[in-house]
Amino acid sequence: MNDADIIALAKAAGLVQDWVAANGEPKTVAPEDMRAILEALDLPCGTAEQCAASREKLRQLEDGSNHLPPLVTGVVGQPVKLGHVAALAGGSYRIELEDGAQQSGHFGGDASGGLELPAIDRPGYHRLLAGDQETTLAIAPPRCFGVADALAAVPGLRRDPRLWGLGVQLYSLRRDGDGGIGDFGALAMLARKAARHGAAALAISPVHAMFSADVHRFSPYGPSSRLFLNALHIDPAAVMGAEAHAAALASLGPDTAQRLAQLEQEGLVDWPGAAALKLSLLRRLYERYLQAGNTGEFDAFLREGGDALRDHARFEAIHAARVANGENGDWRSWPDGLRDPRGADVEAFAQQHAQEVGFHAFLQWQAAKGLSSAQKAAREAGMPIGLITDLAVGADSAGSQAWSRQTEIINGLSVGAPPDVMNSKGQSWGIGAFSPVAMKAKGFAAYLEMLRATFAYAGGARIDHVLGLGRLWLVPHGASPEQGAYLTYPMQDLLRLIALESWRHKAIVIGEDLGTVPEGFDRLLADAGLLGIRVLLFQRNQDRFFRPDEWPSSAIATTTTHDLPTIAGWWQGRDIDWRRDLGLLPVGETEGDARHGRERERRELWEVFNEIGCAGGSVPDAAARTAPMEAAIDFIGQTPAPLAMLPIEDALGLPEQPNLPGTIDEHPNWRRRMPHTVDAILDEPDVAARLAILNRSRSPRGVH
């Protein structure tokens, strides 16, 4: 087996051998590393014969080998390219449009340049029949549903698409009776409050399903499944009402209410403690629900959820049983019979543990009701967008989605990041990614069901690491992140499907495009109507910070993100404190270097604040806890961004950030709670004044 064959196969599979690191240094992936990744992609290349067979497999997928793929994407008003399907050349076809109309015609007689259909003027999922073949035509609008479209859909609102919203970590929200974890009830309350202050949107941290039997896993970006919801955000009192809630709580013993009250007072979320109590309470409520006997609405939810819901509930039940028995919870180590979601052993387990499987399906029903109610509350309170959910870049390889979608999600590779200035050894996050080969072969079915789950109960979605639409750094399990490589994805197809689904759900789309962005990528997103993200602290060159009028109108504007210091924390150098204490300063940089650089940056930021009239006078010193907050908020409000997003930590002037990249337990990631309950937090005089700044800077005419 020679290296040239491996490299040729890797190129055909979309692996990138030569790439440029963040510092501009050219890099080349070694053939042996390529081989490990190809094997995980189900493209064997140990021998010349295996290489040839894998190349043929890719060729058939790419050109159809005389067969149409299961799904072809296109854009309204543009010809639809079908590929080299020679068997259909010169033949007739019929298109059955989604609305029942039909179109027919004949293909040209020469397929060497690829067959194509005339432009279709209606978006949707249409059916193409040609000869003995058929496929789905996913015809997308030219761009995603946008902020201006959201405004236009609400009668009586102004038409100036310069809105603002708040960003929150859902688990951090407080309300009386929440048991120590922010829930959908608190979210609905905050949405109403934020709308009264003029907010058009409320962006939330990911609410994907986690592992109910392993409550020590709580990073929202490492979920078990992106198809379902985190049951720990359910408000138990909303399940069957206050009386049933009180009875269920009492049945758990006299100390339970006291323990829950203690958990509510903590400054950090005690995930294991709060989760165990909440799940016990929800289990009692499920038992009471079954005893009541009226399960019609739940039965309808089960039917609508179909195989996907059934699979997730079964996974949760099997996973819990194995963990309870002291066995490995990772499905990849389960007996063969349990590794097959459609197998007889899984079916037998589900029959023997029907109530337990039903409990996990019940949790999904209640979570869906809670999130849906929060979005309804936001819209009824006057928000033209409402909730913006967050789609994580991947799901845990040991989780429900990877188990139930084994043919679409790569087993053996983890999403990560190559070495860079901040992480000299690179990163491997232990989360699985879709296989681009399987995506095409399966008609993008698993990707579409995930998009629909993301949009289902929201007015918008943030796509984490949107660069992954074009390429992902994938690392073989057990290998160093340095032994990974970039795998390219069918970005044009994915953008079209996102646009089509965003219009069908009337939801805006934001792409987290921070980091090393390939040249032209931001233009691709803008053309697709997918908003990028611009962060105040990054909007600068070597000499100065950019003025608001130099910011793009194709991205949202924000003061910071969950992975970055808050404005107060940045001003005080709190992030430098953490990096010093944890040994996370970049190689070659001392604490003194970091603080000297920060002093210069504070001065430069204050200069641009003065220049545009956001602030005046001399630069406040590092100990000033709130001095720059109003100026920073006014600044992002003055940008041409259609949506300015203010993290609630900055609205409150808090110094600590939700997550510190590069740490797990060393920093209280994904645990910090808000200092006040949601019914009062936005009405604090300083906070209300900051929100009023956004109303003024976004539109002199006000929000409505």
TrEMBL record:
<dbReference type="InterPro" id="IPR003385">
    <property type="entry name" value="Glyco_hydro_77"/>
</dbReference>
<keyword id="KW-0119">Carbohydrate metabolism</keyword>
<dbReference type="InterPro" id="IPR017853">
    <property type="entry name" value="GH"/>
</dbReference>
<comment type="similarity">
    <text>Belongs to the disproportionating enzyme family.</text>
</comment>
<keyword id="KW-0808">Transferase</keyword>
<dbReference type="Pfam" id="PF02446">
    <property type="entry name" value="Glyco_hydro_77"/>
</dbReference>
<keyword id="KW-0328">Glycosyltransferase</keyword>
<protein>
    <recommendedName>
        <fullName>4-alpha-glucanotransferase</fullName>
        <ecNumber>2.4.1.25</ecNumber>
    </recommendedName>
</protein>
<dbReference type="GO" id="GO:0004134">
    <property type="term" value="F:4-alpha-glucanotransferase activity"/>
</dbReference>
